[in-house]
Predict the structure.
Amino acid sequence: MSRFELRTPKDFILQTLAPRQRGAFSCLPVSYTHSMEYRKTYIKDLFETAPGTAASAFGWVKTRRDSKGVTFVQLSDGSCFKDLQIVIDAGTLDESLMKLLTTGASVRFDGEIVESPAAGQAVEFKATAAEVYGPADPEKYPLQKKGATMEFLREIAHLRGRGNTFGAVYRVRSEASFAIHKFFNERGFHNVHTPIITASDCEGAGAMFAVSTLLEAHDETFKMRSLKPADDFFGKPAYLTVSGQLEAETLALGMTNVYTFGPTFRAENSSTSRHLAEFWMIEPEMAFCDLDGDKALAEEFLRTVIQHLLDKCAPDIEFFNQRIEPELIKTLEHVATSGFEHLTYTEGVAMLKESGENFEFPVEWGTDLQSEHERWLTEVKVGRPVILTDYPKDIKAFYMRMNEDGRTVRAMDVLAPRIGEIIGGSQREERLDVLEARITEVGLPLEAYWWYLDLRRFGSVPHAGFGLGFERLLMYVTGMKNIRDVIPYFRTPGSAEF
Ligand code: 4AD
Ligand code: MG
């Protein structure tokens, strides 16, 4: 049979086995003996279960160790950082079943929670029966290797969540998402869903992916159905959104406090450790609020979410502290309890110029700050997060409120040590004439923003908001060095494998 003629699970197993193991793997049960309801008890719950309780443990084998008269299996189901130690006394399970208990295999063990003599765990699991659902050929299982590099793990993103590091990252990601919704919900913010397909460029940076049905894919070559935008699906050019802000503003001017939390897309051709083409952004928008209110919310928000994660994800964060970023817990605790430094862009630039540092990119008033500048300010100069405000208008988006000086706008960036910019936000320009002039000045078509301008025609109000890059926050709280490693499937220039 060729590799591509797989029909039944049994064929597959025979196929993937080295010849010497075929005998063992061919005895795989073809039907499952245990009910397959969704799991209500996890390994994390078994750790809280009293010794002497009968239980079943479901998961994937992480490692296996055989010693005289006993086999130890480390079992994980992703529910917590710790693996459950399964103890199998020699002779308890069939030899044919024992052979299937290799790294990567999915298994159910039946048995009993017992007190553990081993250090670092109160209980372990004494197995009396087992069922292997899917074996994993140890010769071929990609996660078998110890000490795999982050680069290698990116190539097997579909499997890396089974390992310690990525299991921890994805648990923190999940808890952070929950903490964010909780934070806003408790403060009366409405969660709004802003569109993913849009016709307007919020940031005016032109780094947008087009959404079109004009392009037809035939085998390996691309053909155009038409070249006229009017023939396209929406009858005009449309894009994946770079930010939900403009639509969130429309909803805030009616619902007062809203936030959107969704995927955003940027076709910037920058392959850095901090940029993704698809990332998630949290964008609160507040009516009757100015830049000071915006700054206060950003600070309270970051500190609350970080404290929540310190409380709820302690074992995962301890692991990051040990293996990924020394001092992580210390800095997170510091951030959660101390205020951020507030500086204007002008003050920040003056500090950078006086620093005597030999930056790769020189700093002048009016230039955008590079990551090296942001990191110097937060890491070297201040030693904690910095909120930088009042940037020159020419390096910021059209919607930011103009200051009296006519040169700077009511912008704010929150800069974090190790990461640089983590939040970008501003007070919004609420004056119709000033906003129209700005849109025209930056070369955007006024007609396309008629609905956005309507907000300034009818019941305009001072309002403000910001965008937090979710993956940048996750880099900050996990200490992971590359943004590709805090999202399950990363999209970067030249890379969209899965
Ligand atoms: O500073 P940005 O471009 O701001 C906005 O999009 C505003 N419309 C937000 C608002 O006021 N509602 O992006 C906000 C944040 C950045 O501070 C950064 O954390 C993150 O989004 N970000 C990225 N994260 C990953 N990959 C990229 N390519 C990113 N670009 C921005
Ligand atoms: Mg920004």
